[in-house]
Amino acid sequence: MTNAAPSLNSLRVLVADDHEMLLEMIDMHLSGQPDMEVTTAKTLGEALDEVALAGGFDLVLLDLNMPGMNGMTGLPKMMAANKGKPVAIFTGNPPLRIVEEIVEAGASGIVLKTTPLRTLANAIRFMAAGDQYIPRELTFRRADEKPQNDTTLSVKEMEVLGYLAEGHSNRDIASALSLAEPTIKMHVRAICTKLGVKNRTQAVVTAKDLGIA
Fold this sequence. Notes:
Distance between the termini: 30 Å
CATH superfamily of the largest domain: Response regulator
Number of domains: 2
Low-confidence stretches: none
Number of helices: 10
Strand order of the largest sheet: 2-1-3-4-5
Shape: elongated
Number of strands: 5
């Protein structure tokens, strides 16, 4: 859906994300920029339809986990559809492996969902100009982070992760799995360590980026 009237020098931007409130907030902010014409979509299919209708955009920003993306498979589809114009990924806290895959696939950048709106607008201008945008924190991670020796979650850890993704407390998970609460805490710590994150919220976001939750 297009929400801003085009002007001669407008950057034509497509933002695709299935989180309606976040999408509306981004749309409202970017549509208020004097140099941007914004179109939104909630699935990869809708985004591809918008690209076909518009004949391409100066920048397409894709939510990594929205319907139709199927992990990384949606990125090359959109890159082909947008005919060489910039396509970037919008995501939460991607693990190093996903960051590398996005970069190697030729994306114009990665925008974190925690990015301030003012920074988001500038990042879009930067990528639309032909440059690649990688947030500072991801740049540091790529330089410093070393792969974990063991990143495979056990069956029990996968069960715990499933409950975490549903928002259950350690006490609730312990009751559901007939385990002691300290045991659940141990599993949560192990999950965080293996996924290279600091807390349960980041673990869920990362697991979703990896397609395992």
